[in-house]
């Protein structure tokens, strides 16, 4: 397998973590999608990372599709519960974490536009998504070691990647003071090899 991505993308990090957790191998091809020389659109018409080329030569993209694909490959650690209803809960939580991340990315990109072209109401709308999303995830994390069940799932992977990406790209955004259960979750996740080996590099 070949994983096309960048070292800073939280969505790519999800897949790198899943590979490590499952003990699966993929060659990593660093191809930041914002660079003019990028080949990412050759793999994903949407021009986004992550994308994956399977050993059979098929090309897949979107972190959630890639996690589902890796789940089909087996490996030591399942990231979705066997029960379909439980798996739906995990997918919903992971989608919520990704949505918070999408809103954070939107704020970062808006911040790169000239100051007089930035739209405060639109930034506030994204902040609302982040705050409501974190509140819901905090509620879910409270009193639990993992967001769902008794072992790591795709929900923890997505939430950890999102929160640690907020620290990386929006360091002045203080999510920690209001969300102690998420702080504790990220502390536990950061101690795993899969997280410590995939810390974003600018
Ligand atoms: N829903 C997608 C989001 C992927 C995404 O937005 N990736 C960013 C990197 S952090 C990207 O490639 N952006 C380039 C672009 O939007 O053109 C996933 O989960 O894979």
Automatic annotation (TrEMBL):
Ranges where the GST N-terminal domain occurs: 1-78
Q: What is the top-level taxon of the source organism?
A: Bacteria
Ranges for domain GST C-terminal? 83-202
Q: Name one Pfam family in it.
A: GST_N_2
Q: Which InterPro entries does UniProt cross-reference here?
A: Glutathione-S-Trfase_C-like (IPR010987), Glutathione-S-Trfase_C_sf (IPR036282), Glutathione_S-Trfase (IPR040079), Glutathione_S-Trfase_N (IPR004045), GST_Omega/HSP26 (IPR050983), Thioredoxin-like_sf (IPR036249)
Q: Which PANTHER family match?
A: GLUTATHIONE S-TRANSFERASE OMEGA, PTHR43968
Q: What is this protein called?
A: Glutathione S-transferase
Q: Which organism is it from?
A: Viridibacterium curvum
**What taxonomic lineage is listed for the species of origin?**
Bacteria, Pseudomonadati, Pseudomonadota, Betaproteobacteria, Rhodocyclales
